[in-house]
Amino acid sequence: MDHPTPPVVQTVHTPSHNQFSLEDRMLLTQDIAKSPETNPLSLGPLYSFRAQDLPIVDALALFARSHRLNIVAGPDITGTITIDFHDLPLDRAMTALLEAHGYYWERRDDLIQVRRFKTTTLNVDYIRLVRGGTGQNRAQMSSGSSGTSGGSGSQDTGQITVNQQDEIKFWEELEKQIRTLMSTDGRLVVNRLSGTIQVTDWYHRVNEIDHFIHTVHKALYRQVEIEARIYEVNLNDDFSLGIDWSKINFYGTSGNIALSNIITAPFGGFIAKAATTTISFADGSFDGVLKALREQGDLRVVSQPRVVTLNNQPALIKVATDDAFFTQTILQGTSGTGNIVTEQARSVTVGLVLSVTPQISDDGWIMLDVTPIISRLRDIRTSPQGTATAPVLDVKQSSGLVRLKDGEMVIIGGLIQEEVSHSERKVPLLGDLPWLGRLFKGTYDVKTKSELVIFLSPRMVHAS
Question: CA 62, 66, 69: angle at the middle one, nearest 5?
Fold first, then answer.
């Protein structure tokens, strides 16, 4: 019985780089490097190629001649390749030839250029500055004297500072992160003035950086509008320990209405009642909350600002007064000349400074970093020399992170202030009599407590 003759499969095998000339290797691969066939799906011609232990430069030349392509390889393209593919479009065929060595190719008209590195230019639209927000309550006093021509001098300085700072060095951080993604052979050029970044590196590294910048763009340009409603409640005697949020009916609301403390010690170490909640109001229900607050004290609107900020960028709201205090410096003159006295005005913020930094996630959740600082002027002290004044501040500060959905509202309370006012009471006419009038009048101290309530509602701003 005759057995069928097995088919003969020809391959390209080059045990030595100089064993065959380029023409010889073309003859050996005529049966496997076929002319491109027409793609039935109308995606362009399809290509097939096979080589074993062939220098990649020679493989590219064979592939080009067999398929009538124009391929130019750079002088730094080295290495060998073993490959076998059938019926691939040109982009996948070139990727199969070059991917193992990390080389890059691009097509310009009818010419295919193979390079070791890929260069790309990216644009980042961002302001060229260090973005930051600072809320500060500060007062400084100093007094002293100095002498010339062998005289002596002394200086006394005191300072009170409450500082909240949020600084973002965007370009420094971005450049550092890009260099982390680059290889040691890569090159980076950053022009902050035009917002242009040029990267030269292995093509897969450049693609990773391109994807990273695209992700940064997507997150960076998200915007949120923050509506703040700030109220002050002068507490009744029954609620002198603070607003009782459990007595407020959050009807028509949804979401998380569990109360939690954001203030650790509002005053004198006293732990206030739960003062923070995240809720979503239905139509008309917010007015019901304000009505409930009026039942616990006199309600006063402090401010109702709206701010729009980018993702992870701080927004500052300041409702305060800058009071001036003067410091005096005495320069002792020489004999025959008088002292030189100079005065300098310094300001201290009295009121509310609110810092809000939003972080917007892909799924629509918004995280807020909220830091309110409220300060009241208690007293004004004078230095022992009587040449300078400094304020005595009552400062309340809190900081917290909350997570809520678009359109929900967070309530921050527990910022309790106590004020002492002096009032005079007298009997009409009799209290105005000389000498005897003191028997018919008196001075009384009236203590009042108030709590600051902040409502924050973030809403995402969608691009048109």
Answer: 90
